[in-house]
Every structure is written in structure tokens, then in C-alpha cells.
Amino acid sequence: MTAISETADVTTRPDYPEAGADTASPRLIKQVRERADRTFRLVSSTGGVIVLAIMCLVGIFLTVNAVQAIAAVGPVEFLTTQEWSPETNHFGIAAVLTGTVLIALVALVVALPLSLGTSLFITEVARGGFQRTLVSIVDLMAAVPSVVYGLWGLAFLQNNVIGFAKWLSTWFGWIPIFAVDGADPANPLPNNALYGSSTFIAGLVVALMIVPIMTSMMRESFSRAPIGEREGAYALGATRWGMIRSVVLPFGKGGVIGGTMLGLGRALGETIAIYLIISPIFAINFHILQKGSNSVAALIALRYGESNGFTMSALMAAGLALFILTMIVNFTASTIIGRSRSGAESEA
Amino acid sequence: MKTLFSARTENHDEPDLVEHVQQPGGLVADNISAWFGDHKVLDRVSLSMAAGEVTALIGPSGCGKSTFLRILNRMHEMIPSASLFGEVRLDGDDIYAPSQRITSARRNIGMVFQKANPFPAMSIYDNTISGLKLAGIRATRAEKDLLVEDSLRKASLWDEVKDRLEQPGGGLSGGQQQRLCIARSLAVSPRVLLMDEPCSALDPTSTRRVEETIESLRGQVTVVIVTHNMQQAARVSSQCAFFLAAQNTPGVIVEYGATEAMFAHPQDDRTSDYVNGRFG
Ligand SMILES: Nc1ncnc2c1ncn2[C@@H]1O[C@H](COP(=O)(O)OP(=O)(O)OP(=O)(O)O)[C@@H](O)[C@H]1O
Ligand SMILES: [Mg+2]
């Protein structure tokens, strides 16, 4: 049967004449909103608009203040210069931005397995009171101020990690990022100072700071993996790890990515702990185990006190670069999460 | 269940999936009591489920049918407060014995749940053979293709999905998902298949398909099915057990026997009332 018959330019559907011409077009539906709904819309949209406005204001403020400095050296110069000496009109963010990214990457490489393990342990292994205790300890870790982490890293962690850093550079020094200039593997008593205040140690401390927030997000998403699917896997003879791999991890993928990006964002912006630990240098240093590192936020904290006018504008420019980097990370994160959700949540 | 790979192995002498093709197993529940915390829900229940036969468990809501079924493949112990007494023997071996692995017990005694639970993000193809992967069994692409088709055919789903095997399992309709779960369970060649109200969320057509599947499994797999549908019990099962829990007492088996006899001439008044729809 043909559903549509065409006579002249009128389409009739179905194809018997009594039905007449198809003149239907979608009608407009006007919705009258309830009072409570109107109030709710007003309040919630006000909140949203205010947050958005503040974000824009920060961006505009930074841009306006940064223009002077960036114009003085030119954007290319600003992105590629390693030194930071606005007084002599010779400055750029190449070293500090690289340092920021390196510290954040070290932090992420350490924090990702740690928080994955912790969150899986909490959701899949620990039970009852032990589970609740662990959850609150992790949440407590998130509440410790970063200056405390910084002090602890400086006074305790650094001394205890230098041995490991030495071991790494001795055995894996052939990998460029683990090399340490001036280290002599033959010397049984190498100079400890070579290994202190490095990107690695700063990254380690930042890792400890971002583990709690990453763990919380991953734990949240893992714990929502449906019991039905879990039992389905077990009923096929899965081991606990098999069940985790086929049910919990795919389900929690969005949470893992989201948590990681949140951690990365925080690591990029971390200031005081890094400021306390690194010994600032203004040269790109890919040797993460070697003394000397830098970060945008630490630079601002370091130079802010003595700045005015043009030097302040230079710091604003550095801040703007960090702001943009964080925004990119967050937008990437939300796109990835958005995309990964579509697969996992197509349950009927 | 033996037919699929036997022809092929005569040409190849490597050990492969054939090892996992098995005879139906006889299942015996011996003196089972079960508790959730202090709450006793089953009291000294014994039941023998003959190899290759279909046994139906019927009874009013809350009398412990699901609990009993979950005890048969060690799913009961997943619930933290749950405990039990008694033995479940698969061809004479107690599956709760310390020497028995929980994973092999569950692989031998598969389970289909009331609510379809395919792995939603996994493709239909991968869903079907997910049991192999979970058990760490390796197979070539050709073997997998064969197994996928065979399992989906057994679950009478093949014709509907053969053109979209790479699409996610979560995208199927409810009835198709349930049949996918049946296919997934069959792919690991279980000796016993437990089904807990597999059709309660399905339309009549899907229900008939599932019943046909059960019918075709007779002699290949031992099937134990919980159902609230008396006609279904009468259609698919050869043996039947009637569970009942009186007010505030644990569940027991009131009557057990050949389905036909039990529906035609129940020995117990309560069975007669239940199968004739007078309570429950
Ligand atoms: N996870 C649990 N925790 C505590 N009690 C439970 C749990 N699961 C079941 N029970 C109790 O065990 C008893 C038997 O439940 P079960 O699910 O086995 O009944 P059923 O016969 O399958 O019922 P239905 O026909 O409604 O599915 C009920 O009293 C129920 O309240
Ligand atoms: Mg039940």
C-alpha cells in the first residue's frame, strides 16, 4: 500500500479521498507557568547569571590589566621568554608555565593510581564502620589547608623522598626527564641538595592535596554502579576484579575523568605549597628530579609584594595565562565527560 | 550443548572451548535454612532438581523463592547480613565446600535475573561472550563468532540483532535485553540455569520466546525457574515445588512433584488453593 499519494501539489494521507487534504501544521502550545515555578526560575537563574558574571569580570579584569605588559613585549615574546625581569622589559611565561604544567603532571601521575585504588578500595572492599571511617578520613584530608601540606612537604617529606629521587635518577637517569645535571653515579655520597626543591617533590605534595578530591568524585561514581549489573557479572563467574573491570570501571568512567580534571585544575592553580617547596628558577627545566622549578602561581606570590604599575601588569598577564589554561582544561573535561556518558547511560 | 564444537575439534587437537561444553548437572539442595540477620526466611528446605529437567518454583510473594534460588549459585552470600545452613550438591559435590571455588560454582550454575541486566555500554556481541572474558577463557575470532551466533540463536534473539551486533546492549528493548542475558548465560555452557521470574517484565511475545528457549534447553541444561504465572509453570516445567511461608514463619516446601499431577490433583489443600488462584 502506498501511504502517500500526490495529486497536483496537495498531499493526502491516507490515500482515500474522504480524508481530504493534509493541512495540519504543528500548533503552538503556550504554557502558563505557576507562581512557584516563576519564583524558582528567577532565583536559580539569578544565581547562574551572577556566577557567570563573576567569571567574566575576572577574565576582563585580568585582560585589561595585562594589556599594558603584553603590549610592551609582544605576545610571542611573552609566551617564549623564560626570564622574568619586567624592570628591564624582558619577561615571559615560558619557564613558569612549563613548570606549572610539569608539577601538575607529576601530581596527576602520582595521584591518579592512588585515588583510583583508594576509591575502589572504599567502594568495593571496605565494609561497614571501616568504610565510613575511610570516607571521613579522605574528606578530612581535603580539608587540610594547603600551607600545612607545604610545611609538611618541606620539613618532612622532602628529606625522606630524596633517597628515592636519587635512586630514580641513578637507575633511570638515561630517560631525559629523570636526569640530574651534575649528579655523579659513581660518587657514593652524592650531594643531597641537588635533589631538593624540585618539580618532583612539589608535584608529590600537590598529588597528596588532590588525592582526596579525586577520590571523592571517583568513589561517588563507582558506588552508583547498579547492583543488578554487578550481580550479573558475578553470576557469570566473575572474580571481584573481573566484575570491577566490566561493570564498575565502565560505569564510573565519567567520574574518573571528571575527578582527574578537577584534580588537574587544582594542581595548576596550587600556590602556597609549591611556593614553599621549590627553589624558583626562570629557565625551563625538564629534569623533574633536579633542584629548581617554578610555577605561575608561585611567581605571582613571590613577586606580588614588590610590584607596582608595570611590574604588576606583568604579573596580571601571567595570571591571565593561568586562567586561560585552567579554563581550557575544564572545558576539555566537560566535553570528555559529556561524550563518555552517552555510552554508559543508555540503559532502557 | 555438546553439539557445537565437537565436529570442529576432530580436526583440531588443541584444547579450546570444547572443554567448557558440558552435560546438564543434577542439583540437590539438602536441608537448607537461610537467614537475613536474625530473620529466618527458609526452614530446612530440601529439593532435588533432576538433570536436564525444568523445575518450577511457585509460591506467594515473600516466601523465599528468590532466596532459595540465590542459594543455589552462591549469590545469597553477597548480601552482608545473609547466612545459611545446609548443602547444595551439583552432581554430588557440595558447592559450599571449602575446596570449591565460588567462581566455578557460579559458572556451572548460571542465573538470569528478574530485571534484565546486560552490560549497557558493551556491544551486543561482547555482552554475549562477556562470560568468557570474565572467566579468562581465550578464543579466536572465529570461535567467538560461532559462539555468539549459537548462543543468540538459542535465546531466539539472533534474527533481531544479527545486523547490529556492534551496538550497545543497553539500546535493546526490555524483552530483547532479557533474551540477551539468557544468551550471555548460555554462552558459558552452564550445567544448570537458574531463572528468577525471567518474564515478569516482558510482553506476551517475548514471554513466549523465552518459554520456547527453555523448552529447547530441555535435556541440555538443568533449568530451575521461579514464576508467578501458573500457566507458565504448567507449560514449561516437568517438576514443580510449592513454597509457602505462613505468617511470621520461615518458608518451607509444602508440596513437590510432577507438574501435571500437582496442578491436576494437589495433595495439599494449600497447594490446591494457590494453583487455583484462591490466595497468594
Ligand atoms: N536483602 C535482604 N535483606 C533482608 N531481608 C530480605 C532480603 N531479601 C529478602 N529478604 C526477606 O526474605 C524473605 C524472602 O524473600 P524472597 O525475595 O526470597 O521472596 P520471594 O519468594 O522471592 O518473593 P517474590 O515472589 O515477591 O519475589 C522476605 O521476607 C524478605 O523480606
Ligand atoms: Mg523473588
From TrEMBL, chain A:
GO terms for cellular component: plasma membrane. It holds the Pfam family BPD_transp_1. Keywords: Cell membrane, Membrane, Phosphate transport, Transmembrane, Transmembrane helix, Transport. Gene3D superfamilies: MetI-like. The keyword Oxidoreductase does not apply. It is a multi-pass membrane protein. It is found in: Cell membrane. Its main location: membrane. NCBIfam families: phosphate_pstC. Part of the binding-protein-dependent transport system for phosphate; probably responsible for the translocation of the substrate across the membrane. This is Phosphate transport system permease protein. The lineage of its organism: Bacteria, Bacillati, Actinomycetota, Actinomycetes, Micrococcales.
From TrEMBL, chain B:
The keyword Translocase does not apply. One of its GO terms (cellular component) is membrane. The keyword rRNA-binding does not apply. One of its GO terms (biological process) is phosphate ion transmembrane transport. InterPro entries: AAA+_ATPase, ABC_transporter-like_ATP-bd, ABC_transporter-like_CS, P-loop_NTPase, PstB-like. Residues 27-275 form the ABC transporter domain. Signal peptide: none annotated. Pfam families: ABC_tran (PF00005). Keywords: ATP-binding, Cell inner membrane, Cell membrane, Membrane, Nucleotide-binding, Phosphate transport, Transport. One of its GO terms (molecular function) is ATP hydrolysis activity. CDD domains: ABC_PstB_phosphate_transporter. This is Phosphate ABC transporter ATP-binding protein, PhoT family. It comes from Herbiconiux ginsengi.
